[in-house]
């Protein structure tokens, strides 16, 4: 279920980044989750990366320490590297 706050955020993101309606809802939902999770490195894995390959979106997500990754293989590699770095 989408909250009213997420719907409102989606409308603003749609205007700010010229997104399609469904993409703005996805991005607003991701942002809500990122806020809830709090500090630390995070990844947003989406095979439809072209939908979010808009000027400013990656920078926007970086404020939440979130990296956009366009394939599950690349995400796995990123996560494994992060885990290995913590262990050393």
Q: What topology, given as strand order, has the largest sheet?
A: 1-2
Can you summarize the main beta sheet? Answer: 2 strands, parallel
Helix-and-strand structural type: mainly alpha
Write down the Rg.
Answer: 14 Å
Helicity, as a percent range:
55-70%
The end-to-end distance, rounded to whole angstroms, is: 41 Å
User: SSE order in H/E notation?
Assistant: HHEHEH
Beta-strand percent range: 5-15%
In the predicted model, the low-confidence regions spanning at least 5 consecutive residues are none
Q: Could you walk me through the main structural features you see in this protein, from its secondary elements to its overall organization?
A:
There is one protein chain. This protein is mainly alpha-helical. The protein contains four helices and two strands. Strands 1-2 form a two-stranded parallel ribbon. Helix 1 (4-17) crosses helix 2 (21-37). The longest helix has 17 residues, at 21-37. The chain has one domain (4-87). It is globular and about 45 Å long. It has helices at 4-17, 21-37, 57-62, 72-87; strands at 42-45, 66-69.
Could you provide a short overview of the structure?
With 88 residues, the chain is mainly alpha-helical.
Lay out the secondary structure.
Layout: H1 4-17, H2 21-37, E1 42-45, H3 57-62, E2 66-69, H4 72-87
Parallel strand pairs: 1-2
Helix pairs in contact: 1-2
Keywords:
single chain, 88 residues, mainly alpha, two-stranded parallel ribbon, 2 strands, 9% strand
